[in-house]
Amino acid sequence: MRLPHIHWPHFHIHFHDRPLAGEPHPERPFHWRLYGCEMVATAVLMVVGLACVILLSAPHSWIGDHLALHPAIQAALCGLCFGLAGTVAAMTPFGKVSGAHLNPSVTLAFMLSKKIVWIDALGYIISQIIGAVLGTALVYGAGYFLSSWKVHALAVHYGATVPYTGVPVWFALGSEILVTGLLIATLYWLAAHPRFKWITPWIGGIFFFVMNPLTAWISGNSANFARSFGPDLFAGNWNGLWIYLLGPFIGSSLAVIAIQADILGKIHLMEARLVNFGHHGRVPHMDDPHFVHAAPEHYEEYKQHLQMISELQKQRTVEDDI
């Protein structure tokens, strides 16, 4: 199944960043253009995601009051819409260039799997936090032009995720660890299987649509420190923010450990830009990149990867027949 092709305006901006895997190039240890694209993509995630959450959950909004009578449906729809906001961000030219991690937990998982070096992981995480702040700032700023929007946004603290009243703090932390671990494991498993790889940019909406009715009442199901930091900054609510830093990072790390222990079977993973969009990030313009623009030194590696995947599939087919 092919993803629908979205036609975006053509930007004549040149990108010549090297692939992120491996040691940084001595003449170019940083990849500022990729960090910038990741920042903008994360801002898109926040604008679309927070707008949906505010409309769906704010008291006295045109749909919030109706959904309040059905909290499980409300939670599921909030998860679906915020997850699909990640898909929208990934499909922008910025997301396609950076690979659209959009989440420090995802970047950490790629770093622990040695698919991105630590200096680039740090650049991505800082970019994600800045992007989350910028995206929330746009949502906040809209209140100066629409008074009703300001009322709705304030009522839900700009879509902030906070531990629910009466829930023990360690229970909320455990929920964030569990949800993030499951999210990373799901992304890894899908990305490692060519038959299902096409769904990886869309899985966020499906995942949180299922998980939110089950666990969102505990901690809000953030699984993303940047997503929690932005709204908390503007709402001035720092209560429990450490949960959304520590929980997702622990969950991401545990998921990688489980995957490396082959608990989910043999999984060979590539970096997000190659998984989702078929390129390493070296693209001539900020339009739809393809693998033909990847750095030449990685052609053979990519061919070997495809050959290994094909052999594994044949082996599994033979085992199933037996």
UniProtKB/TrEMBL annotation:
Keyword Membrane: yes
GO MF term list: water channel activity
InterPro entries: Aquaporin-like, Aquaporin_transptr, MIP, MIP_CS
SUPFAM superfamilies tied to this protein: Aquaporin-like (SSF81338)
Keywords: Cell membrane, Membrane, Transmembrane, Transmembrane helix, Transport
Superkingdom as given in the UniProt entry: Bacteria
Cellular component GO terms held in the UniProt record: plasma membrane
Pfam families, per database record: MIP
Subcellular location: Cell membrane
Residue intervals passing through the bilayer: 34-56, 68-91, 121-147, 167-190, 202-220, 240-264
Membrane topology: Multi-pass membrane protein
PANTHER family from the UniProt entry: AQUAPORIN TRANSPORTER (PTHR19139), MIP17260P (PTHR19139:SF199)
Family under the similarity heading: Belongs to the MIP/aquaporin (TC 1.A.8) family.
Official protein name in the record: Porin
Organism encoding this protein: Acetobacter tropicalis
